[in-house]
Specification:
Radius of gyration: 16 Å
Number of strands: 13
Order of helices and strands: HEEEEEEEEEEEEE
Structural class: mainly beta
Shape: globular
Largest sheet: 5 strands, mixed
Oligomer: single chain
Strand order of the largest sheet: 7-6-5-11-12
Distance between the termini: 36 Å
Strand content: 25-35%
Protein backbone atom coordinates (compact mmCIF):
# COMPACT_ATOMS: atom_id res chain seq x y z
CA UNK A 1 0.00 0.00 0.00
CA UNK A 2 1.64 3.19 -1.19
CA UNK A 3 1.35 6.14 1.21
CA UNK A 4 -0.56 9.15 -0.13
CA UNK A 5 1.59 11.84 -1.75
CA UNK A 6 -1.06 13.77 -3.62
CA UNK A 7 -0.98 17.50 -4.20
CA UNK A 8 -3.93 18.32 -1.88
CA UNK A 9 -2.04 16.76 1.04
CA UNK A 10 1.06 18.76 0.18
CA UNK A 11 -0.95 21.98 -0.05
CA UNK A 12 -2.76 21.33 3.23
CA UNK A 13 0.47 20.65 5.06
CA UNK A 14 2.16 23.64 3.45
CA UNK A 15 -0.69 25.93 4.53
CA UNK A 16 -0.68 24.44 8.03
CA UNK A 17 3.08 24.80 8.35
CA UNK A 18 3.07 28.35 7.01
CA UNK A 19 0.28 29.40 9.37
CA UNK A 20 1.98 27.84 12.36
CA UNK A 21 5.38 29.23 11.43
CA UNK A 22 3.86 32.72 11.32
CA UNK A 23 2.11 32.27 14.66
CA UNK A 24 4.89 30.56 16.63
CA UNK A 25 8.12 31.95 18.02
CA UNK A 26 11.11 30.59 16.13
CA UNK A 27 12.37 28.68 19.15
CA UNK A 28 9.10 26.89 19.85
CA UNK A 29 7.21 23.87 18.68
CA UNK A 30 3.46 23.67 18.41
CA UNK A 31 1.52 21.40 20.68
CA UNK A 32 -2.16 20.76 21.05
CA UNK A 33 -3.78 23.82 22.57
CA UNK A 34 -7.10 25.66 22.38
CA UNK A 35 -5.55 28.09 19.87
CA UNK A 36 -4.15 25.45 17.49
CA UNK A 37 -5.58 22.01 18.25
CA UNK A 38 -5.45 20.57 14.76
CA UNK A 39 -1.95 21.30 13.47
CA UNK A 40 1.55 20.77 14.75
CA UNK A 41 4.84 22.14 13.53
CA UNK A 42 8.46 21.55 14.50
CA UNK A 43 11.64 23.04 13.13
CA UNK A 44 15.33 23.27 13.82
CA UNK A 45 18.51 24.17 11.99
CA UNK A 46 21.32 21.62 12.21
CA UNK A 47 24.91 21.43 11.00
CA UNK A 48 26.49 18.08 10.19
CA UNK A 49 30.04 17.02 11.04
CA UNK A 50 30.94 17.88 7.42
CA UNK A 51 29.75 21.46 7.94
CA UNK A 52 26.56 21.22 5.86
CA UNK A 53 23.55 23.08 7.29
CA UNK A 54 19.96 21.87 7.03
CA UNK A 55 16.77 23.68 8.03
CA UNK A 56 14.46 20.88 9.08
CA UNK A 57 10.71 21.53 9.00
CA UNK A 58 8.01 19.05 10.05
CA UNK A 59 4.23 19.54 10.03
CA UNK A 60 1.34 17.25 10.97
CA UNK A 61 -2.44 17.43 11.05
CA UNK A 62 -4.49 16.69 13.02
CA UNK A 63 -2.65 16.56 16.34
CA UNK A 64 -5.80 15.80 18.34
CA UNK A 65 -7.30 12.44 17.42
CA UNK A 66 -10.34 10.45 18.58
CA UNK A 67 -9.95 8.37 21.75
CA UNK A 68 -9.38 5.16 19.77
CA UNK A 69 -6.93 6.73 17.30
CA UNK A 70 -6.93 7.93 13.73
CA UNK A 71 -4.83 9.10 10.79
CA UNK A 72 -2.42 12.04 10.83
CA UNK A 73 -0.99 13.53 7.65
CA UNK A 74 2.67 14.46 7.90
CA UNK A 75 5.07 16.41 5.73
CA UNK A 76 8.68 17.42 6.11
CA UNK A 77 11.20 19.48 4.19
CA UNK A 78 14.83 20.51 4.41
CA UNK A 79 16.10 17.10 5.54
CA UNK A 80 19.55 15.78 4.61
CA UNK A 81 19.00 13.36 1.74
CA UNK A 82 22.29 11.63 2.59
CA UNK A 83 20.81 10.53 5.93
CA UNK A 84 17.71 8.36 6.15
CA UNK A 85 15.22 9.08 8.92
CA UNK A 86 12.46 7.22 10.69
CA UNK A 87 9.08 8.91 10.93
CA UNK A 88 7.15 7.30 13.77
CA UNK A 89 4.82 7.74 16.74
CA UNK A 90 6.80 7.42 19.95
CA UNK A 91 6.96 8.12 23.65
CA UNK A 92 8.70 11.40 24.42
CA UNK A 93 11.60 10.76 26.85
CA UNK A 94 11.14 12.37 30.28
CA UNK A 95 14.27 14.49 29.78
CA UNK A 96 13.01 16.03 26.52
CA UNK A 97 11.43 19.48 26.55
CA UNK A 98 9.64 19.64 23.21
CA UNK A 99 10.82 22.71 21.32
CA UNK A 100 14.24 22.77 23.00
CA UNK A 101 16.67 20.70 20.89
CA UNK A 102 19.39 21.05 23.54
CA UNK A 103 17.36 18.53 25.59
CA UNK A 104 17.12 16.00 22.73
CA UNK A 105 19.77 13.69 24.18
CA UNK A 106 17.77 10.44 24.46
CA UNK A 107 16.33 8.39 21.64
CA UNK A 108 12.52 8.64 21.51
CA UNK A 109 10.73 5.43 22.36
CA UNK A 110 9.22 3.00 22.64
CA UNK A 111 7.40 3.58 19.38
CA UNK A 112 4.16 2.26 17.93
CA UNK A 113 4.96 -0.84 15.87
CA UNK A 114 4.59 -0.50 12.13
CA UNK A 115 6.73 -3.04 10.37
CA UNK A 116 3.86 -4.24 8.20
CA UNK A 117 2.86 -1.95 5.34
CA UNK A 118 -0.82 -2.23 6.23
CA UNK A 119 -0.17 -0.87 9.75
CA UNK A 120 0.91 2.50 8.36
CA UNK A 121 2.15 3.64 11.77
CA UNK A 122 5.77 4.33 10.80
CA UNK A 123 7.86 5.12 7.75
CA UNK A 124 11.51 5.16 6.78
CA UNK A 125 12.48 7.99 4.43
CA UNK A 126 15.67 7.28 2.50
CA UNK A 127 17.19 7.54 -0.95
CA UNK A 128 18.99 4.19 -0.64
CA UNK A 129 16.26 2.40 -2.54
CA UNK A 130 16.16 -0.47 -0.06
CA UNK A 131 13.50 -1.25 2.49
CA UNK A 132 10.01 -2.63 2.98
CA UNK A 133 7.52 -1.57 0.28
CA UNK A 134 4.81 0.62 1.77
CA UNK A 135 6.98 1.57 4.73
CA UNK A 136 10.13 2.87 3.04
CA UNK A 137 9.63 5.91 0.83
CA UNK A 138 12.16 8.10 -0.99
CA UNK A 139 12.86 11.73 -0.27
CA UNK A 140 11.44 14.24 -2.69
CA UNK A 141 13.07 17.43 -3.92
CA UNK A 142 14.56 19.59 -1.17
CA UNK A 143 14.74 16.74 1.32
CA UNK A 144 10.95 16.66 1.60
CA UNK A 145 8.40 13.93 2.18
CA UNK A 146 4.61 13.66 2.49
CA UNK A 147 2.78 10.68 3.93
CA UNK A 148 0.28 9.55 6.56
CA UNK A 149 0.53 7.68 9.86
CA UNK A 150 -2.15 5.56 11.52
CA UNK A 151 -1.96 6.28 15.25
CA UNK A 152 -3.49 4.80 18.37
CA UNK A 153 -2.98 5.77 22.02
CA UNK A 154 -1.64 2.45 23.31
CA UNK A 155 2.02 2.27 22.30
CA UNK A 156 2.60 -0.99 24.21
CA UNK A 157 0.98 -2.87 27.10
CA UNK A 158 0.52 -0.31 29.89
CA UNK A 159 2.13 2.47 27.81
CA UNK A 160 -0.76 4.77 26.93
CA UNK A 161 -0.51 8.28 25.53
CA UNK A 162 -2.00 11.04 27.74
CA UNK A 163 -2.36 8.49 30.58
CA UNK A 164 1.10 7.16 31.45
CA UNK A 165 3.32 8.92 28.88
CA UNK A 166 3.65 11.86 26.51
CA UNK A 167 3.56 10.92 22.83
CA UNK A 168 4.61 12.63 19.62
CA UNK A 169 5.09 12.18 15.92
CA UNK A 170 8.86 12.15 15.60
CA UNK A 171 11.68 12.04 13.13
CA UNK A 172 15.08 10.61 14.03
CA UNK A 173 18.07 9.24 12.15
CA UNK A 174 17.39 5.72 10.90
CA UNK A 175 19.31 2.57 11.86
CA UNK A 176 22.38 3.77 9.94
CA UNK A 177 22.96 6.39 12.69
CA UNK A 178 20.75 5.34 15.62
CA UNK A 179 22.62 7.39 18.24
CA UNK A 180 22.67 10.60 16.17
CA UNK A 181 20.20 13.05 17.71
CA UNK A 182 20.64 15.70 15.00
CA UNK A 183 17.41 14.81 13.18
CA UNK A 184 15.17 14.41 16.25
CA UNK A 185 11.98 16.44 16.00
CA UNK A 186 8.74 16.15 17.98
CA UNK A 187 5.12 17.09 17.29
CA UNK A 188 2.99 16.23 20.34
CA UNK A 189 -0.25 14.33 19.67
CA UNK A 190 -3.22 13.98 22.03
CA UNK A 191 -6.31 11.80 22.03
CA UNK A 192 -9.78 13.08 22.90
CA UNK A 193 -11.25 11.49 26.02
CA UNK A 194 -13.85 8.86 25.27
CA UNK A 195 -17.40 10.16 25.82
CA UNK A 196 -18.95 9.24 29.14
CA UNK A 197 -21.26 6.25 28.76
Amino acid sequence: MKPPTKKPLRRALAVAAAGLAAALPLSGTASASPQAPLFGHAHRTVTTADGDTFRLRLAAAPTVLPADGGTAYVGGTGYNRAQGVFLAFCVVPDSVRVGDPSTYTERPGPCLGGREAQDGSSRRITDTGTGTPGITIPYEEGGSFHTSLNLRPEIADGVVCDVTVRCAIITRADFTATDLRLYDQYIPVHFSPAPAG
